[in-house]
Amino acid sequence: MKNRAFDKELKTFRLGGVHPQDNKLSASAPLAQLPLPKQVTIPIIQHIGAPAKVVVQRGDTVKVGQVIAQHEGFISSNIHASCSGRIGIIEEVMDSSGFKHLAVNIRVKGDDWLETIDRTDTLVEEISLSRDEIVARVMEAGVVGMGGAGFPSHAKIKVPEGKTIDTLIINGVECEPYLTADHRLMLEKPREIIVGVRILMRALGVSRAIIGIEDNKHDAIELFDEWLREDKQIEVQPLEVQYPQGGEKQLIQAVLDREVPSGRLPADVGVIVHNVGTTFAIYEAVQKNKPLVERVVTVTGKDVKQPSNFWVRIGTPVIELITAAGGLPESTGKVVSGGPMMGKAIADLEVPVAKGTSGILMIAQAETKRAEEYNCVHCGKCIEACPMGLEPYRLLLLSKAGQSEKSKRENVLDCIECGSCSFVCPSNRPILDYIRLSKTKVKKLK
Amino acid sequence: MSQSLLTVAPSPHIHTELTIPQVMRGVIIAMVPALLVSVYNFGLGAVYVTGLSILFCAGAEWAICKFLLKREPTITDGSAVITGMLLAFNVPSNLPWYIILIGSLVSVGIGKMSFGGLGNNPFNPALVGRVFLLLSFPVEMTSWPQAVATWSLDGTTGATPLGILKDGLRAGETVPALMQQMPSYTDFFFGFQGGSLGEMSAFALLIGLGYMLYRKIITWHIPVTMIATVFVMTGIFWFIDPTRFASPLFHVLTGGVMLGAIFMATDYVTSPVSHKGMIVFAIGCGVLTVLIRLFGAYPEGVSFAILIMNAFVPLINTYLKPVRYGRKK
Ligand code: SF4
Ligand code: SF4
Prior knowledge:
The complex is a heterodimer. Chain A is of the alpha/beta class. Chain A is built from 13 helices and 17 strands. In chain A, strand 10, helix 4 and strand 11 form a beta-alpha-beta unit. Chain A is globular, with a radius of gyration of 21 Å. Chain B has helices spanning 20-42, 44-69, 79-89, 97-112, 125-136, 138-141, 161-170, 175-180, 185-190, 202-214, 221-240, 248-253, 257-264, 275-295, 302-319; strands at residues 144-145, 157-158. A two-stranded antiparallel ribbon of chain B has the order 1-2. Chains A and B meet through strand 15, strand 16, helix 8, helix 12 and helix 13 of A and helix 1 of B. One iron/sulfur cluster (SF4) binds next to helix 12 and helix 13 of chain A.
């Protein structure tokens, strides 16, 4: 008999970590379909790697799921029409990071899907595709890492030449405060996610998978444990609540006690990590032939009327989500795409939801003010917090002094930009701002 | 509201509530139990010395900012109040006001502001003031009022347990004989002994430690390591020759070990930043304390030990790096 997840000792990563307030306000809001917008603006690059090449023209009619931009090379990703209608202008627009990128506008008309896509809710458990077919299907479907990084998923399910993978880790941590998209997905689509895990296992040729879930999502742990009672290969690992557990390197350390050497990939220590959202998208791609055209987005904030979790078509303007959750609260000072620790503040509410948009967070004016900055008091709290074992206070000083060589020697490039140091500094020093500056300069050194 | 008013700033977008003023307030609260014991023991003297010391230190910082540095006074961060309290905790409760004034000026003026204020001073300001006073006013700084609950300002004075020990041993007496003349360990623990204003009661100081640990203001590394080091090292000597060396319990319960380990060595600014560094630093503080106590000219060595170790902090910070992720050799 298999050990129940609750009998297991909670694990966590060894270095650093902080405990911001959870504020999972939308945890009990079931997934709801966001009404179709009048138009969508689909960014052509939503992933790490080469931009895709637009294959439609203004005036074309498209169906949901139709390719509108073709990947260029292996590390690249397809982009599909997320709504049916007529192609509008194709031009550069501001994305949620404030950068200008090419985007395709679609005037939405009806909801007309490609016939090849299985839109039913029926669970398809039987996996009939081979390893290579799975990779091809995932690539075709334009699935990218949905935890935010946006690395093309097909490239992460093909075992790199000369490497052996022994364990697949599924990231169900969702350690960012406020966000509940993955949590809800786990609660509502556990069986689909489990099939997704099996697909990944087949593609990677591994016989062991571990789903890491933080202890603040008891219901999800219980649910997966229940569905996996008879499964000998997939297990659930409950984790202590600690930020940034969802960081790939931290999760690998927490679950397997392995460390990814600096500058290397998880595959170098025999591990591949996929997020639950991505795993679900892979299920849909492989079993339902459905490309990545929609995702779950948490819309939340302390003053938001109805904190929600919506199924949103890619390219939907952020303002539509906010309206559906009860409108922009009077108090709002900042709107963040993503979580409060690593998300990006957006200036324009017309920016579209992308494949990596996990949440829209509205923060009150009063909370956005940066408090008074003091001298560094050498309290060591930033060091204590840093999950990479760096000395953030020193990196800030080196950055201010423009000492790129020294910063490099102090391993500034290892920084995962989790923000724990800035979060915890009692002197309110903008540590991460300076570290980012320094990273850009150090990268230029080479 | 209009969209253009949205703030666009880099992540993280939230911040801990434990900011400098909160930290300082927490430390002040943690010192209250020890202060109350002093008030109980020394009556108005404790109130008077502590009040003056806080006033002088905060005033000195305000005046230096205002008139010498010509910048916005920084006393709102609360650190000058802590310096004032710590200075008071380290002097006898019958110290005349002008000595307190000098001590405060040295602490804040030389110990802190001359280096650029909070965060830049290499030495613990209160200890700088204290040691300066000890060297300049040896008589006043070592006439200890005895712990008798009195509300008058002039009680009787006498030596501290450590002083009795040192003088007795010099005069050729043995430790067991000297112990006869002293209060019990329970009295030491609860604070019925002679000594500096704030070092009386291990019990009260430990409550403060518990509070600071609970509020996550400090970690266990420095206080626990320093107290343990003193305990183990004096224990070894005591084991070798109990007639010449007092017991480890005596050493941790008397004098400034608790006060030093909990409130002075843990000063953010003047202690190392990494856990490894903190442990090395605290071992150093403990070892030096014991060496001074057992073999030095002074009966007590905590202040000197911490000041000496303060000087090594930059070195410790440079060489004792935290454990890096993914860089195992
Ligand atoms: S942002 Fe970088 S330096 Fe700061 S805690 Fe995270 S990894 Fe460490
Ligand atoms: S947390 Fe802030 S004050 Fe403390 S050492 Fe780091 S930078 Fe300095």
